[in-house]
Amino acid sequence: SQVLFSASRAIMAVWKDVRSVCGGPLSNKLARRSALYGWPQTLSELSSAGWLCIHVLQIILHYVLPYLVVSRMCLAAGFAFPWRVALAVELAFHVWLLMVRVPSLEKRGLQEEVPVSGARQAWTDAMASVKAADAVGYPFLKFLSGWFLGADPLQIRYDNLVEWVSCMVFAREPHSVSVSQQQDARAMAEDVCTTFGFKPANGYNSDIRFQFFFREPLFFLHRSCFQYILTSMLPRLGVACVFRVLFGLRRDCCKSTGVHYWWRASSCSGASQQSDLLFFHGLCGFTGYIPLLAGLLLGSSRGAILVETEDVSQCLNFERPASRAAIMEAVKEGLLKLKLARENQSQGRCIVLGHSLGSCAVAWVLDELRATNVITGAVLIDPVSILLPLPDVAFGFLYRVPRTAFDWLCFLWCSTEPGISFYFRRRFFWYNNMLKPEHLEGVPTLLCISADDKLVPSETVRAYAANHMPKADIRWWDATEHTGFMGSPACTREVVRWINLQT
Questions:
Q1: What is the DSSP string of 357-426?
Q2: How many angstroms separate the Cα of 214 from the Cα of each of 165, 182, 426, 473, 492?
Q3: Half-sphere CA count of 291, side-chain side, radius 13 A
Q4: Helix, strand, coil proportions of the chain in percent (round to 5)?
Q5: How far is CA 503 from CA 211, 243, 394, in A?
Q6: Helices (H), 24-174
Q7: What is the DSSP string of 207-260?
């Protein structure tokens, strides 16, 4: 039964992945890469042996390992593991995933968002940040090469540039946009050439391609139902118990958007009242943040709102899109509850904290609520929202061949999970997720940057922040990778200490 189980899982996983790869973004191997700017190999350039290694690791991590651990535990406890039941459950799960869930995702298509500030202004802001990055040692040609998946900038023709601009700003190719949008795309391409002195040859080079994840087919690696139970459902139940029993939080649903959030009112009032906490997690939910939240909420009287982004929490629930509008509605509803829970029903103040993807939500909050004097401080850890127009985050998360242990973990665990893949390829729009320096004006800010971050260009972000966010308190965490602070009590204490000093 074990042999049948492993064989059936392997066949189904490989079949689906081959179907995705052959028809999707990984099949085009025409991109001509340049080693000049250090961009690593992309998945489209991976050999058959490389894909075989990925599938072997996929089967081991997502199928063999979870069942091996639990079956050994059952054997040690003196009873046999129910392999037949497990096989039936896995078959039913994969039939549901392949025949119901995945087709429903593919039918949803791109859930477009227009730039909040307008297309031209969004592009102007993006190029301003690229120019600022160029001034601190991140060359424009490296920027362009990265968006074109490591291509030599000299091979990029003018029509390639116009097509890239159109896809970046309008999420559509030039032939499928309106006449006015075509004109805007050409004007923006001209602006790039003028600003950076770039002089592409006329015409179109069909041998290069760029990051166009908006329209590329979804790509993910299958994982077992049992793994979802062990690494998603059970941790979520454990987090819920900790939140309710230890932190005194309750879970509510925004009435207008369906976004869930955890909250509690402050237990103090008057001058001794601490600022409330408004928290946004990164990928995979709240589990890794328990030590940080414990330092902020245990033994503390502060109120709290912890916004839950189910899109990226590996729970296979895509019914509540975590758009800017939806998240901000949930935040405003939570802040109103905190206000009404106070004895004098006055509007309190809060510190907003976001890690990784959560830093994008921090940018939304600062943009919309900074003028109301609700925000008394901001904490950004491993922020992907700073210099987001640079290609590093998208390239590293969606296209790069894994090289380090973190790369492999990110690839096998996060970026190829169905929900996370769907979010970043269909619901994440860079122009509505940027953090601008003016968002932080007048707001005490802690900026925590991991020196060995493989997603965020940490050196460039630090130099950019020093020039354009002069009042931010920048903490440089040596020998720490993206999300590495979760395993560092010293980093956690540093964040908690800073927040406590602000209240």
A1: THHHHHHHHHHHHGGGT-EEEEEEES-SSTTTTSSHHHIIIIIBPP-SHHHHHIIIIIITSHHHHHHHHH
A2: 13, 18, 6, 35, 35
A3: 13
A4: 55, 10, 35
A5: 43, 23, 36
A6: 48-59, 65-77, 83-96, 102-108, 119-135, 140-147, 158-170
A7: T-----TTTSPP------HHHHIIIIIHHHHHHHHIIIIIS--EEEE-TTT--E
Q: Return the SS3 of 477.
A: strand
Number of neighbours of residue 400 by Cβ within 10 angstroms? 23
| Dist CA 394 CA 400 (whole Å) | 9
pLDDT in tens, the chain (503 residues): 444 344 444 444 444 443 443 333 433 344 445 557 889 889 988 889 999 999 999 999 999 999 999 999 999 999 899 999 999 999 999 999 888 888 887 777 777 788 888 899 999 999 999 999 999 999 999 999 999 999 999 999 999 999 999 999 998 888 888 999 999 999 999 999 999 999 999 999 999 999 998 888 888 888 899 999 998 999 999 999 999 999 999 999 999 999 999 999 987 765 557 899 999 999 999 999 999 999 999 988 899 999 999 989 998 887 788 889 999 999 999 999 998 887 666 667 899 999 999 999 999 999 999 878 899 999 999 999 999 999 999 999 999 999 888 889 889 989 999 889 989 998 899 999 999 999 999 899 999 999 999 999 999 999 999 999 989 999 999 999 999 999 999 999 999 999 999 87
Q: What is the pTM of this model?
A: 0.90
